[in-house]
Amino acid sequence: MALHLQITGRVQGVGYRAAFERQATLLGLSGWVRNRHDGSVEAVVDGDAGALAQVEAWARQGPAGASVQQVLAAPCDAGSVRAGVMEIRPTA
Fold first, then answer.
1. pLDDT value at residue 79
2. Alpha helix (H) ranges present in the chain?
3. Rounded Cα distance, 25 and 37, in Å
């Protein structure tokens, strides 16, 4: 099962991607996270439903310094995810 997240608010320049990557790795998820040119953060994570729910809940708070306005979450295809890898990708 995979989940696509679009996170808006003050989420760039506050360590959001690195913190998200650490949290997802701790939960045993695979996937990627990246900044978007529109100021949002985007992520695709793959793993068990419980871990996905936990990372989605974490994304709604983010790290200290972030001010999350909205998290849009939707099921997605995990085709862009490398199994066993959680990575920070370049801005798109």
1. 84
2. 16-26, 49-59
3. 25
Strand 2-10 relative to strand 41-46: parallel, antiparallel, unpaired?
Answer: antiparallel
What is the residue extent of each domain of the chain? Answer: 2-77
Give the amino acid at 22: R
The residues carrying an active-site annotation are 17, 35
- Cα–Cα distance between 47 and 85 in angstroms, integer? 11
Q: What average pLDDT does this structure show over 76-89?
A: 90
Residue recorded with tokens 């871990």: 51
Please list the helix, strand and coil fractions of the chain in percent, rounded to the nearest 5, in that order: 25, 35, 35
CATH number for the domain whose boundaries are 2-77: 3.30.70.100
* pLDDT mean over 60-69: 96
Give residue 25's pLDDT band: very low, low, confident or very high (50, 70, 90): very high
